[in-house]
Amino acid sequence: MEDSTRTIAKGAVIVFIGLIISKIFTYLYRILLARGLGPEAYGIFSLCFAIVSFLTAMSKFGVPSALERYIPIYLKDKSRLKGIITFSLRTAFIVSLILAVLTFVFSSNIAVWLNSPEISEVLKIFSLSIPFIVLLSLLVSISKGFKNILYPTISFNLIYPSFNLLLAGMLIYMGYGVVSIAIAFFAANVLALLFLVLKIETKIFSFTAKIKPVFMNSEILKYSVPLLFVAISYLIIGWTDTIMLGYFESETVVGLYNAALPTAALMMFAPSVLVPLLLPVFSSLMSKKKNNQISNLYKTVSYWTVLINLPLLMLFFAASNLILKILFGDIFTTASFAFIVLSAGFFMKSLAVPSIKMMELHKQTKTIFWIILSSALLNVLLNLAMIPRYGMDGAAISSAISFLIIFLAVSFIVFIKHKIYFVSKRMLKAIITTVVVFAPFLYVYETLLPRTLITVIVLAAVSGSIYFVLSYLFVFSSDDKALIKKLFSKITRLNI
User: Fold this and answer.
1) 128: alpha, beta or left, given left = phi > 0 and alpha = psi -120 to 50?
2) 171 belongs to a structural domain
3) Is residue 210 included in any domain, yes or no?
4) 429 occurs within a structural domain
């Protein structure tokens, strides 16, 4: 088994455990907001979070990907490392501070523009979080650049969501209402940041060490600035629907839609597990001119993504109403169709991630920018046309179309420029196995059995077990089997 695959797999085990715990806390948090405060307050949270997401993306200048690409290349050059890290942190912090102040000052104007005066005070508190979120994101990328995924996982996937949930729950119980969300959000980000600063300083790379920095500012900016616009364009796709729903519809509709949106975004679980160390490993292999390993790793990560996500997509299609009802309550089942459409869209987005990382490796950041920007502009136009007529369903269709276009475009570019296609024989076998196993169970669920939680759990457990056995026998390669045994051994011994 290749060392690069082992590195990705080891990182995947750590991220997998962290994400499972994180998703539990995150969904408990969203259930707390939806059930404890209602759809309107949940909508206020979603609008504020969308605004802060835009501003943090602008503040980061695209440097997280630059850190993940350049740190592995200059691991032995401490002076260049110091220059890269110092410039990135300093630039992002200054920009984030300016945007945080502007958001705080003009929060009332933003609220009036969105026809949501209720968000003004909450947005002021949210704005204070912007510099801390930006620094946390950069520190996560610094740690990944050094191929350390453990500390970011503890910070971002354990400390942040658990503290956010506990503090929000306490404040809501004490009667602070929707302001509780903003206070908990701010405090959780600060705590996660402090932990990661301490760990990186003492275990990975000292920010205070007396090393004369050698700056590469122009090269970093040349690489990063297109990715800044990529991040903003992605956020336009991801949050335009929420903001436009806030403009055309009520906070209640925004809240309903944003129950479906993060649930559908569970499709990003697979790339979230598999991709964190992909660009650093790609960069390391490229510096050693191991192009065949890069190609194999790209196909392997794409194959694993399909293997995990396709069964999940079929589950979402079959039990959309039941899932939303169990998680958020009866009223949220009105977002069922939007949930189905968004799930398909996020499935396409998950398949695009390995191709985007491949393009980042080859410094095709401008090409990525134009693809994402075109999709984002199309998303805006589609939302303008469809939300007034179809409401949240129109917003979901707009986002799904945008994600589909991104997937097709980046896959085509990687195939044309680098002669690598993400489809492999293993992937085709995985698709056939998924359909053969899950289609009969979906038919039984739709036509013969009551649509209850117990039914879904039993059918999912039985079909999932059959799927794993058949995949192990007919789909997995010898490397896959060896890797599964190794990872299972590590998990059972917690030796990660």
Assistant:
1) alpha
2) yes
3) yes
4) no
pTM of the complete model beyond 0.85: no
C-alpha 484/C-alpha 109 separation (Å) is 54
**pLDDT tens sequence across 360-404:** 777 787 888 888 888 888 988 998 998 888 888 998 999 899 999
How many other CB atoms are there within 10 angstroms of residue 39's CB atom? 26
Write the Ramachandran bin of 115: left for phi over 0, alpha for psi from -120 to 50, otherwise beta: left
Residue 38 lies in a domain: yes
Range of 84's domain? 3-423
**What is the H or E stretch that residue 61 is in?**
none
Measure the CA–CA gap between 38 and 31, rounded to whole angstroms: 10
Instruction: Give yes or no for a contact between 400 and 261, defined as CB atoms under 8 angstroms apart.
Output: no
**Beta carbons of 281 and 8 less than 8 angstroms apart:** yes
Which tokens go with 373?
Answer: 């920007």
Overall number of domains in the chain: 1
- What is the C-alpha separation between 333 and 18, in angstroms, rounded? 29
Q: What is the pLDDT of residues 195-250, one digit of tens each?
A: 999 999 988 888 888 888 888 888 888 877 777 777 777 677 766 777 788 778 77
